[in-house]
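Journal club side-thread
Mid-discussion, someone asked how the predicted structure for our own chain would compare to the paper's figures. Pasting it here so we can look after the session.
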Amino acid sequence: FTRNSERQTERKKRMYLFLGRDTVVDSRTVMGIFDFDSTSVSRITREFLSGAGQKHRVVNVSYELPKSFVLCCQNQEFQLYISPVSAQTLKKRALRQTGIYGNGGTV
């Protein structure tokens, strides 16, 4: 009974981050939220995005203009989500869920 109760409590603690369209990720797996325009000017970032695509680790959330990408890691495997939602909006959503946002902080 205790193990069942712990699982139910764990499920309640899970928060999900909506990335656009029908895509949500477990917020505990999010390693970073990046602005597509400002980060893709770097050669290193472009190489990382290209390598992730070649390894089939990229999920294009929507075919709209990409505004951000979200790096997630689960079971030591990473997944990259390209999202039409701005990095600032995603960050606000994530911070609101954790209760950090709302103390007058800026994003």
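Post-session note: DSSP finds four helices and six strands in the chain.
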